[in-house]
From TrEMBL:
Organism lineage: Bacteria, Pseudomonadati, Pseudomonadota, Betaproteobacteria, Burkholderiales
SUPFAM superfamilies: Periplasmic binding protein-like II, Winged helix' DNA-binding domain
GO BP: DNA-templated transcription
Similarity comment: family membership: Belongs to the LysR transcriptional regulatory family.
Protein name: LysR family transcriptional regulator
């Protein structure tokens, strides 16, 4: 067995989640990919992929093996590209992992400019909500919200955010605009459930050192942030959203923010994650520089009343798997 080629076929299959897609990427037959991956599994004595009528996915052993092998293959890739002079004409596939909220509202609108400048780099965007997800193993660059625990990865702050309390003009006209944080408890607040299962129903805010909070509730809770956004735009309640993800609804007046003199103490920052060895790949280095500039420009374009003044703190409920943030003991 050609071990290096087997690892290459395994990595391509893990990245594309398909023998046929891996075969197209490698310009070989599907049978060749499937056969060599099966030989690798036999040699290791474990199943790397679970095969179902719906497709294939990594097993737990496969994910662990991928995590161990990927740095080795990446080192070889770095050496290959350096010798080929790829820096002068960057090419190849770049796998980017990020949550949907960031890909749809911050990154994808900017990608045409990157493509125009580097047309031979193919961008493969994967939905990755946290660095420990299986999909994160194949991502060369990750953009994530919050305070990630990512051992072995370089972490770089791209931007701080503000959490804005918003509703449609029609909702505010019908129900009145709150004058205090506590008054939010009298409104229909539509809530987001994070990837750990916690409903974010405890909204803490600060103004000139004074802290106020509200335990809010409403008729809708969703893991999908855009479900909440669309319901709020439709006038069904009040929502709280990261400012960089609602720039267009704010610009068009679909959303009207209130209580702007109060800032959230726990607005999640936006972070960039990558392995140190990958920074030497021209396509990775160029994309990192691109993202840094994109988010720097977004911060610079903030209206004066939306500027961020507080240093974000990790909330008590973060990663603790409480059913509701309001149920977390306070310090």
């Amino acid at each position: 067995m050609d071990k290096l080629r087997a690892l290459e076929y395994f990595l391509a299959t893990a990245r594309t989640r398909s023998f046929s897609a891996a075969a197209r990427e490698l310009d070989v037959s599907v049978a060749a990919v499937a056969r060599l991956v099966s030989t690798l599994e036999t040699n290791l004595g474990v199943n790397l992929f679970e095969r179902t009528p719906q497709g294939i996915k990594l097993t737990a052993d496969g994910a662990a093996y991928l995590d161990m092998c990927q740095p080795i293959l990446q080192q070889l890739q770095v050496a290959d590209e350096a010798l080929r002079g790829a820096a002068s004409r960057p090419k190849g596939t770049l796998v980017v992992g990020c949550p949907t909220i960031l890909s749809q509202h911050c990154i994808l609108p900017e990608l045409p400019a990157f493509h125009a400048r580097y047309p031979e780099i193919q961008i493969d965007v994967r939905t990755v909500d946290k660095p420990t997800a299986v999909e994160a193993n194949v991502a060369e660059v990750q953009v994530v919200y919050g305070w990630p625990e990512a051992a072995g990865l370089i972490q770089r702050r791209l931007a701080n955010t503000r959490l804005l309390i918003c509703a449609s003009p029609g909702y505010w006209n019908k129900h009145g605009v709150p004058s205090t944080i506590e008054e939010l408890e009298q409104h229909q607040c539509l809530l987001f459930r994070d990837q750990e299962g916690t409903v974010i129903d405890f909204w803490e805010h600060e103004r000139e050192g004074l802290k106020r909070s509200a335990s809010v509730s409403g008729w809708l809770v969703s893991t999908h942030r855009d479900d909440v956004l669309q319901a709020v735009i439709a006038g069904q309640g009040v929502g709280r959203f990261s400012d960089l993800s609602i720039r267009e609804p704010l610009r068009t007046g679909q959303l009207v923010p209130v209580l702007l003199d109060w800032e959230s103490r726990h607005a999640p920052p936006i972070n960039l994650l990558y392995r140190s060895s990958q920074r030497r790949l021209p396509r990775v280095r160029l994309f990192i520089d691109f993202l840094v500039n994109v988010f720097r420009r977004m911060e610079e374009e903030r209206a004066p009343e939306l500027q961020v003044h507080l240093t974000p703190e990790r909330p008590d409920w973060y990663r603790r798997r409480h059913g509701r943030a309001s149920a977390t003991p306070r310090h």
